[in-house]
Amino acid sequence: MEDGQEEMRSTIRQAGTTDAILSRENRVSSERNAIWARENGRSSKINDLIRTGKEEMRAHVEIQVEGLKNRVDGCTGKMEGEVQGFRMERL
Question: Which domain of life is it from (predicted)?
Fold first, then answer.
């Protein structure tokens, strides 16, 4: 009889330990999922910031390129005018 009671107590202790282990595994799994979701959200925010930065940089570069084109066109026109004037002087 004593052996049967001890075996039952051992089974109950193991069951309690198993429940504790499963409970801990569930907590760890939940925490891992929460961390993953948080990191995924951060990655998404970072990607949005990078995308926005790229768009702003692209717009800035386009404006700078347009300004350079205008400057080059102006200088080219001025040089062409000077060349025409030089040719007129030689004739």
Answer: Eukaryota
State the CB neighbour count (10 A cutoff) for residue 35: 10
Report d(CA 75, CA 4) in Å as an integer.
Answer: 104
Here the tokens at position 59 are: 């717009």
- pTM here? 0.47
Q: What are the tens digits of pLDDT across the range 56-75? A: 999 999 999 999 999 999 99
Digit-coded pLDDT (tens) for 32-51:
888 888 888 888 888 899 99
Rounded to an integer, what distance in angstroms lies between the CA atom of residue 52 and that of residue 89?
A: 56
